[in-house]
Amino acid sequence: xxxxxxxxxRLADDPFFLAAALHRFAASAGLDDSALxxxxxxxxxxxxxxxxxxxxxxxxxxxxxxxxxxxxxxGLDGDALxxxxxxxxxxxxxxxxPAPASPEAPGFLMAARDQPPPQPPAGDSP
Amino acid sequence: xxxxxxxxxHQRLLAGDDPTAVSDCIAAHLEPLTAWLLDRNPILxxxxxxxxxxxxxxxxxxxxxxxxxxxxxxxxxxxxxASRDLLNLLRRERKHxxxxxxxxxxxxxxxxxxxxxxxxxxxxxxxxQEASRALREAVPEAVWQGLSEVETRVLELILLGERAxxxxxxxxxxxxxxxxxxxxxxxxxxxxxxxxxxxxQDKR
Lengths: 126, 204
Known about the structure:
The structure holds two protein chains of two kinds.
Chain A: H1 3-10, H2 18-29, H3 33-40, H4 46-51, H5 62-74, H6 78-96
Helix pairs in contact in A: 2-6, 5-6
Chain B: H1 6-15, H2 20-40, H3 46-62, H4 74-100, H5 103-108, H6 123-137, H7 141-145, H8 149-159, H9 165-172, H10 179-203
Helix pairs in contact in B: 1-2, 2-3, 2-4, 3-4, 4-6, 8-10, 9-10
């Protein structure tokens, strides 16, 4: 692996770069580089330069413009790229959320469980 | 084919509407910058040089406004930034190394710390010299010669991408003034220095 490929891999945790979204999508879908390239309809070598692009802005219509620019530049399937980036960005946002600290905190989920039947108050028995 | 002219690349980074500009900039500069750093620092671990050139490039693509294209060519700026990052990496390594040495090994050593990282690093003086030379070469020598001590320090900070008034204020001797006056004084010195550099480069 050459220097620029190593750098592109290292940036998988930096949300400034497209590498972060692609990495999360690929990991979630269980795709290696070859399979990722097939989905994008490009050669695997293109993935390095693709990872080094700035992350598309998440708001519309900038998102569409950014994805189109990248897809046109590298001859990719724009729809596939948009899907990967949206999915990857969603995972990044989810991972960036702080974990809820207590049951009172918003977002805290508890598993449903059977409650023991309520005990009758003392003195109610005949 | 994409245009890789240095100034055009910087303009694309600044405009911020082309996500491929970041990739183009890294692809155009990473290898030459690393090669330059390795060539100038043959005694160092090559991984340090690679990391320094990466850090310099990543800083540029994330904050392209820090590079002032009217003062320096982009590759000169990157060389300066990479030299500075290399120094910082070496200092960090040195500190880490120092912390890992058990106290008794320093005390019992016949060298008494001389070669155990307490105050000696054979690469550091060379590297400091190299960073200083890279800084010097970025601007015509005649310009440096014509600057006062304060102006020299201000120019060094500008070349290293510094923008914060609070960093320039003590150098300019105005740290005790109210913030607005500090900003005005610092701006005055920076403008004067930039004018000198511009005139010096026009004469080249």
